Amino acid sequence: MMTVATPYFQQDSEIALLNGEYTDVFSLLGMHSSSDNKGLIVRCLLPGALSIDVLNAKDLRKVASLEQVNQQGLFAGKMGRRVKPFAYLLRVQYPLCEQLINDPYQFDSLLNPDDVYLFGEGSQLQTYHFQGANWREHHDVKGVHFCVWAPNAKQVAVVGDFNLWDKKRHVLRHHPASGLWDIFIADVEPDQHYKFAICDVHGNEIIKSDPYAVAMQSSPHNASKIPNLDHYDWQDGEWLTERASREPHAQPMSIYEVQLASWRRSGDDGQDYTDYSQLIAELVPYVKEMGFTHLQLMPISEYPFDGSWGYQPVGLFAPTYRFGDANGLKAFIDECHLQGIAVLLDWVPAHFPRDPHGLVRFDGSCLYEHEDPRRGEHPDWDTLIYNYGRAEVRSFLYSNAYYWLNEFHFDGLRLDAVSSMLYLDYSRTADQWIPNELGGRENLQAICFLQELNARMYQCFPGINMIAEESTAWPGVTQATSNNGLGFGFKWNMGWMNDTLRYISSDPLFRRYHHGELTFSLVYAFTEQFILSLSHDEVVHGKGSLLHKIPGDDWQKFATLRAYYGFMWAHPGKKLLFMGNEFAQRNEWNHNQSLDWHLLNYTPHQGVQDWVRDLNQCYQQYPALYQRDHNSDGFQWLDCNNADDNILVFCRFGIDKQQPVVIVVNMSPQVFHHFRIGVPTDQSYNEILNSDHRHYGGSHVVNDATYEIQATEWQGMPYSLVITVPPLGCSIWAPEPHELP
């Protein structure tokens, strides 16, 4: 390309600009003083333009016509005798149309130095307010401020529907000290698509979606979308106020885990996603009617592959398109709160996928991930691990957690795969990891990240729940960060889940040899703040549904499952049940279709659903079942050694010791008549729930009467009752004056 020097461009500047190699374009394009400071020059690059006039923005009067410098779209011209910069528009004539444009190169940067400082320090909680695409009003002009972090890029441009996806039209301003690039563009519309065109240090072009995009194009496309301007008017102020005053550990917590894409589908062929309006009409009343206190959503940050279930997100700030827009999600959460249901979000800060439009080698370098694959690659999932030691990455993740809690009013976050964050050698062979600076296997940077995350989120949002899926015996997961703990509010009890599922999978004839799998969890039940979880992970990948894990005929399967749920709801710890388990889905969960709701036409499945509903009601009605979940004085074994009969007897206590609950669990198909159990108080007792009741599909071995206590010491208690123990059943007892639920 042959060029010559002009009064407006130096030859090398013109060539670099046209080749996309001129970094500081704002020093060249736009309005600037002439070299002799005796006038103003406007320069612009608009490929395809035939002519360009400069208009005064105040009265739209023509000030000057720009000269066409070359055929590649460079124009420039002097503004007459004007010496003071002024707001202007460009009237651009194209072959088929005329456009009036606010030249983006006339606007100064909108970045706030304090925001930039906190971002670079690794302590910014609201990075999404100035990175990504944000609507602003600048010098009485309304537009979108685009900003992206790409410290190792030679040049960054925003391309989209508004500029014919031409990377020459909107090159961003570079801030070398922070690595940020930004530009303010007035001539854009809500929902238009855009991406960032990045030139790396080697001159290679990279096209990336916006890491801070709050909306993205539907799969298989992957462009970011300019935010919609619609405002949402929240109605849950009373809920948030009350939430801030609650003590979650002393409250009932029964969580219904849902994958919105497959809870219930719609359409004539049953393949359409259920949108938020339908979920408000169907899911929210269902959760309330079933008595769950919390709803936990599997990840809803934008993810390209359905089969990842959301655990490989690319748009961490973008609610997935599958169920509606951001305001639809807000309306859904708002309705949950109005119905007294807390909403938790499954959040994925442990890793991210390699999709080329995502974070991987974002500016041509390992920006969000570690350069060393021994620290930056996850061998199990073929994903990349965040560099928790990099301040800007921490700001990105802190801001994302803050975003979901603040903008969408989620009541807490469940962090996926925390164990993989804590250990440098997680799922690695000896040659695949390197020790930390102290010679250990602990990921010290990830530990600090988690501690700071939890401390700051609890400080900003009193009453929320930060929950860890942590599958090892890492000490202090739910200890305060001031005590060197990780600072989570709760931890999933994976040991209880694994042990008890193994137990119910064994034949009743041999359960006596597995008795410890039911009782071992009480050895460590009070070392952490636990949630007993039967999640989606237990009913996929060939593991079978919960019902099909249990041996025997259908009667035994259903009876055992009901007894197991009774044991779970009575056991210390909060509760989590994955969708479909509440009515004993027979098949494994399939993310491509609805749950098998037709099974509720059959009595056994309806019975399990009724049992779970009544367990939730009983759980919330009797404080002994939840108030002292994490204190050893809230639990007492009455008999944990009856392995031969497969029977457990234990007692739960709340703050009021005169209102205990006694639980008998029989995991054998035998009925036990005249069975004596100890009780702690001298009141009459009622059987408040029995999983063998005919209403639940059982054989109706029940205890209908009010039972007077006997002054016979038994099982370490001063009093006792003689009852009938149902087969493969759970019997729950409470003293009067409580009424039956």
Structure report:
This protein is of the alpha+beta class and 741 residues long. Strands 17-18-21-24-25-26-27-28 form an eight-stranded parallel barrel, surrounded by four helices. Strands 29-30-31-35-33 form a five-stranded antiparallel sheet. It has a four-stranded antiparallel sheet with strand order 1-2-6-5, with no helix packed on it. Strand 7 (88-93) and strand 8 (98-101) form a beta hairpin. Residues 1-5 have low confidence and may be disordered. Keywords: Carbohydrate metabolism, Glycogen biosynthesis, Glycogen metabolism, Glycosyltransferase, Transferase. Catalyzes the formation of the alpha-1,6-glucosidic linkages in glycogen by scission of a 1,4-alpha-linked oligosaccharide from growing alpha-1,4-glucan chains and the subsequent attachment of the oligosaccharide to the alpha-1,6 position. One of its GO terms (molecular function) is 1,4-alpha-glucan branching enzyme activity. Pfam families: Alpha-amylase, Alpha-amylase_C, CBM_48, GlgB_N.
